[in-house]
Structure formats: C-alpha cells, structure tokens
Amino acid sequence: MASPSMTQNTAGNIRSSASLAASGTSTTSTFNASGKFEEQIQIGATFGTVATTNGLQVDVLRVIGSTPVADTIPVITFVLSGTASTSKAVSLALPTGQYQLKFTNLDATNGLTSVYATGDTVDAVA
C-alpha cells in the first residue's frame, strides 16, 4: 500500500497571525505547492467585538504561469463568522499548484483580532 510523506510546517507559515481592519479590508497571501502532491491549509480567525455583519471571507484563487497571475474568480469561497471573543478555524486540501488566499473582513465596524493561515504539504505518495 502506498505511503505518503508529509511536511508539517510552523504555524502561520502562509500568513502569520495578525489583525485585519474593519469595513471590507482585504489582504492576500500567496504560496507555491507546485512541487507537492497536495497542500493542506488551516485558516483561522479570532473575533473581538462583532457586529451583525461579522465574518472573514476567504477566496482561494489559482495562480498560473511562469510570471504568476492570480485568477479573478475564486475556485473556493467561504466565510468564517463568530461571536464576540471566539476563534474559528477550518481546514481544506488543495491539489498541486500555486494559490493566493484573499482575506476580507466583512464586519463594517470592527476589526478581526487575528487572521492566520498554516499550510502542511503531502510531498509524495510512494
């Protein structure tokens, strides 16, 4: 039976835990898993004070070419939402390739206390 080899990386290796301002503020992080079998990512957010509009929207965009260009339409989009003083995290797996994560704070009045992304790789299956 085939056995995978995996690299477990330091927390925040794609995006270090940092705050994200209110009112539709966005930031991006790009990573390259083109030499890997699979990329496994955990994305998390900590909510401080929240309004009814709260949420962290995450868009996963493919990056293509030798001079990489990100897609304008995400291959995956989801929203993490929470109550005051809570943390939420979700994990997903992506196939070989280059990707950009776009993080957008949907809360019109409150910043997110922290947003992070950690990626582990399945390097090969032999």
Helix content: under 10%
CATH architecture: Sandwich
State the major sheet: 8 strands, antiparallel
What is the straight-line distance between the termini?
Answer: 9 Å
| CA-based gyration radius | 15 Å
Q: In short, what is this structure?
A:
Helices cover 0% and strands 65% of the residues. It has 126 residues and is mainly beta.
Describe this structure in words.
The chain is mainly beta. The protein has a single domain, classed as Jelly Rolls, CATH 2.60.120. The protein is built from no helices and 8 strands. It has strands at 4-7, 15-20, 26-47, 56-64, 69-70, 76-80, 86-105, 112-125. Strands 1, 2, 3, 4, 5, 6, 7 and 8 form an 8-stranded antiparallel sheet that branches. A hairpin with a 4-residue loop joins strand 4 (56-64) and strand 5 (69-70). The protein is globular, with a radius of gyration of 15 Å. The mean pLDDT is 95.
Helix and strand arrangement:
Blueprint: E1 4-7, E2 15-20, E3 26-47, E4 56-64, E5 69-70, E6 76-80, E7 86-105, E8 112-125
Characteristics of this structure?
126 residues, Jelly Rolls, 8-stranded antiparallel beta sheet
